[in-house]
Design a protein that fits this description.
By secondary structure, this protein is an alpha+beta fold. Helix content is 45%, strand content 20%. The strands form two sheets. The protein has an eight-stranded mixed β-sheet with strand order 3-9-8-7-4-5-6-10, sandwiched between helices. Strands 1-2 form a two-stranded antiparallel ribbon.
Length: 239
């Protein structure tokens, strides 16, 4: 089937998308940062919302794994596997991570032994842009990282770090961002090799696993933990 993308979804698609996800109007409002009253008025056709408002709703559904097409279509997005390799691969991967983070759909969460491999790889390729742009946007994004070995090297000031013994968690690096689950292998040729599975079900399952480990982990940078709390407070105030 050919999907014809459109510029804005409509009320019929919103109701159909909620039904697919079994979301209430309250859950949709929470996911996209709007009021329940606004969602109700849009679905009832009582207001003509701005494009940015409809864009927020559409992004919330896309993060949850749905896609839309003209004139009234909506469906679960098929699972996809993408493999990134070497210099161009890691640049494309971090572009994807940044794009997901800046949309503000969900937190980016990471587990790795230490930050040396990432730091060395980015330095070798001269690709400091990712750290710079994530740092510049840290008031709009939230990133959490669990380290299992070196807990003294914390290069990303936009990230909240915690430490957990490698006896409790596999130290093979993985990222969860949006509806994607990524495994990173540095001992490969070319290096690194990043395998990304786009699946809301898998991403949600591993995200829950991450937070269960996060609760057991030891905070490493209290000031950044405060920044993360402030970020959450700002999001709640917006809602």
């Amino acid at each position: 089937m050919t999907i014809n993308k459109h510029t804005s979804i409509n009320a019929r698609q919103i109701k159909a998308a909620r039904a697919l996800l079994d979301w209430s109007q309250e859950q949709l409002a929470e996911a996209c940062g709007l009021s329940i009253a606004t969602i109700r008025k849009i679905e009832a056709g009582n207001i003509s919302p701005r494009g940015s408002t409809m864009g927020s709703i559409e992004r919330a559904f896309e993060v949850a794994g749905l896609e839309f097409w003209q004139p009234n279509g909506v469906r679960q997005r098929p699972e996809e596997i993408t493999v990134y390799e070497g210099h161009e691969g890691i640049v494309s991967f971090f572009d994807d991570v940044y794009s997901s983070a800046i949309k503000g759909g969900t937190e980016v969460v990471v587990v790795c032994a230490n930050e040396h491999d990432f730091d060395r790889t980015l330095n070798n390729y001269g690709e400091r842009k990712h750290i710079q742009r994530m740092t510049a946007a840290r008031d709009r994004i939230s990133v959490k990282c669990i380290l299992t070995e070196d807990k003294d090297h914390l290069p990303a000031t936009y990230c909240e770090y915690r430490w957990l013994s490698k006896h409790y968690v596999d130290s093979v690096p993985f990222y969860i961002y949006g509806d994607k689950y990524a495994i990173i292998v540095f001992d490969s040729d070319p290096s690194p090799k990043i395998t990304v599975l786009q699946s809301p079900v898998v991403a949600s399952a591993f995200r829950r696993q991450f937070y269960s480990m996060w609760d057991k982990a030891t905070p490493l940078n209290p000031m950044q933990a405060k920044t993360s709390s402030d970020f959450k407070s700002q999001k709640k105030r917006k809602r």
